[in-house]
Specification:
The chain has about 140 residues and is mainly α. It is built from 6 helices and no strands. The protein has one domain. Helix 2 runs antiparallel to helix 4. It is found in: Membrane.
Length: about 140
């Protein structure tokens, strides 16, 4: 991204594209899941103040954090791996400043049906932070 801005290039190499795609999505998903864990912590602190110390121990929070990192890593690794295994006909330079799935799929020669299905499933799947204040979303925590 720095080389694109500093050197006035209008393309990104494939290796840098997949790295950028993974890390950009990984950190945005980590933000959402971290907010969900924070909301759970606040829920326990407000609703069960006397049991807070026994429910949210250091080990419990460490396991929750490690599980969150592992889950987000696996969620984001699969689409990037699928996109990297596609055969590409045209040049392998992505004509975009910010590398996402769309510009990469344009260069693919093969059928991208499963990749698009996965992207749609990820978009439509309920995320931990998608509850409105009027809904009861206790089941997600």
């Amino acid at each position: 991204m720095v080389s694109v801005c500093a050197l006035d290039l209008n393309y990104v190499s494939f290796g840098a594209c997949f790295s950028q795609m993974f890390f950009m999505q990984f950190f945005s998903d980590m933000e959402s899941f971290s907010l969900a864990v924070l909301a759970y912590d606040c829920l326990v602190a407000i609703c069960f103040p006397f049991r807070y110390v026994t429910v949210n121990t250091s080990l419990q929070m460490l396991l929750t954090l490690a599980g969150t990192w592992a889950l987000v890593f696996l969620i984001e690794l699969y689409p990037v791996t699928l996109a990297s295994r596609l055969p590409y006909c045209a040049s392998r330079a992505v004509r975009s400043c910010c590398c996402e799935h769309g510009p990469v799929y344009i260069l693919a020669c093969a059928d991208i049906f499963y990749n698009l299905r996965l992207a749609k499933a990820k978009t439509l799947a309920p995320s931990p932070s998608s509850c409105s204040p009027t809904q009861q979303c206790w089941w997600r925590f």
